[in-house]
Give the backbone structure.
Amino acid sequence: MGAIRLEHVNIHTAAYEETKDFFAEVVGLRVGPRPHFDFPGYWMYAGDQPVIHISGKAGGVGSGAINHVSFRSTGFLETLELLERRELTYRVAEVPGTRDRQIFVADPNGVTVELTFADAEVADLAA
């Protein structure tokens, strides 16, 4: 018995439209079905899983006790180009003992988002 995957992260924010756009454009999630709550918001999907719940409610800023939200990703170079076009501040790191690369970027609420790209994809860039 135990957890088998991340269910979702809920972000309370008055900037819910900007947050939706960030997770769609930068992270590559899509807007999907959401129950009819009595407040605005979006559910953002990775495949068939709603992994980010955006609630249009006043919220805090930054990650608080949550250090970051991580997504396995593809399209390393395309992501770097997108971040540059959007003029977003980011940091690239290598996972120790691997050639996996991580990009760390803040969403519109100051929540740190980690995008991790596989060794094979990054190795293809060096060829």
Notes: Residues 21 and 53 are 13 Å apart (CA to CA). The first strand starts at residue 9 and ends at 12. The helical segments are 16-25, 76-85, 119-126. The beta strands are 9-12, 30-32, 41-46, 49-55, 69-73, 90-94, 101-106, 112-117.
